Sequence to fold (217 residues):
Amino acid sequence: MLDTFKHKGQRKRLVQELMDRGITDKGVLDALLAVPRHKFVDTAFEADAYVDKALPIPQGQTISQPFTVAYQSQLLRLKAKMKVLEIGTGSGYQAAVLCKMGMRVFSVEIDPKLHHLAKSRLEDMECSTKLLQGDGSKGWPLYQPFDRIIVTAASPRIPEPLKKQLAIGGIMVIPTGDLAQQNMLVVKRKSTNEYEIEKLQAFRFVPLRGKYGFASE
Fold:
């Protein structure tokens, strides 16, 4: 799928919309301007790829709306070459944005089909991400600790394994709540046993599956 002048113009307009909604992080905006979102959606939805809304992807999941991707990414306060764990690879779009920002990306997806689709897309884009098919609610212990953790699915609570895999001084961004609505949380690890949690605005995500997600409720 080509990345045409039309697509680039649509991305430019989308980025301006995100700026108007309060996204100010230049690294995030530059990444969203560079990453071709239409390559992460089915061709049936290509016309809506640069509309600020979530779109269906296989297995009953969604690709988050661009504002949500930008909002979560901005909350991470990223610096070059940080080690970032993403829970819920999905289409691979968020991982591509993080990769474009110069992060070392580790991403876990529970669904085998989505994992393989994302792997193929990210390889085509030459994104050097490490991907794992497995229970993301358990994190990825092999590569801990992580400077940043981003969870792109709704969780009933903050999974304990993710808290433990966050580096001291690190930040986790995670939506928690019930299935109808969640609040975005920013979790900062202050010391071995001390965490600072900030509760922000409401969102609605697909549910996190796995041992510490809604599937175990």
